[in-house]
């Protein structure tokens, strides 16, 4: 037989319900949108929108993976445009800050194997980058990360080589986008 809901019991139920809603993220106001001032908090040298003009230099590629430097550079450009903390410019001469990147290493390693064989069915791609955000015209480095690492996983299709290649290509795109988003958050965290 259920217990009747009395004043104290009702108050306790309301408290528990409120706590569950907040723990579940409903109505708590928590968000991951960038806040604060843009990098280089002084207003000197800003464009009319109050944003620093940024240029993303061509990344260097020290891996055997062809054209990966363009994939990463484009991901960082997209992130700076999306993030709205900077104004992306397409010429270094127009920039106040420059992001430089070096793809130091790219490793593909098996994660899972087909039962009863040594054939990989899932792989992990790990990239290591050297990134620096530099104020143009000075020797000032605003942010640097020498061993920035990010990874992405993908499955292999043992029936189709082209499907496996497509999976790897998609994983590289995801890896570049995730790396750009995470690096952007790190760059702007203290500002």
The CATH architecture comes to 2-Layer Sandwich
Q: Taking all residues together, what is the mean pLDDT?
A: 80
Structural domains: how many: 1
- Uncertain segments are 13-38, 40-48
The first-level CATH class is given as: Alpha Beta
Main beta-sheet annotation: 6 strands, mixed
Structural class per helix/strand content? alpha/beta
Give a verbal description of the structure.
With 191 residues, this protein is an alpha/beta fold. It has a single domain (46-188), classed as Lipoprotein like domain (Double Stranded RNA Binding Domain). 32% of the residues lie in helices and 30% in strands. It has helices at residues 7-23, 68-83, 161-188, and strands spanning 52-56, 60-61, 86-88, 97-113, 120-135, 141-155. Strands 1, 2, 3, 4, 5 and 6 form a six-stranded mixed β-sheet that branches. The chain is elongated, with a radius of gyration of 23 Å. The relative contact order is 0.15. Mean pLDDT is 80; it is low at 13-38 and 40-48.
């Amino acid at each position: 037989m259920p217990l009747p809901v009395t004043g104290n019991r009702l108050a306790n139920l309301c408290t528990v319900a409120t706590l569950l809603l907040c723990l579940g993220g409903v109505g708590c106001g928590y968000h991951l949108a960038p806040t604060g001032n843009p990098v280089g908090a002084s207003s000197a040298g800003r464009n009319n929108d109050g944003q620093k003009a940024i240029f993303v230099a061509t990344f260097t590629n020290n891996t055997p993976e062809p054209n990966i430097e363009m994939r990463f550079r484009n991901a960082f450009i997209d992130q700076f445009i999306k993030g709205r903390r900077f104004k992306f410019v397409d010429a270094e001469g127009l920039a106040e800050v420059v992001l430089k990147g070096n793809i130091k290493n790219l490793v593909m390693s098996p994660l899972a194997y087909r039962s009863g064989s040594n054939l990989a069915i899932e792989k992990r791609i790990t990239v290591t980058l050297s990134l620096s955000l530099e104020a143009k015209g000075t020797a000032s480095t605003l942010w640097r990360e020498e061993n920035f690492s990010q990874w992405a996983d993908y499955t292999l299709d043992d029936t189709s080589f082209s499907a496996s290649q497509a999976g790897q290509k998609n994983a590289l795109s995801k890896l570049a986008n995730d790396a750009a988003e995470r690096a952007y958050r790190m760059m702007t965290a203290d500002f």
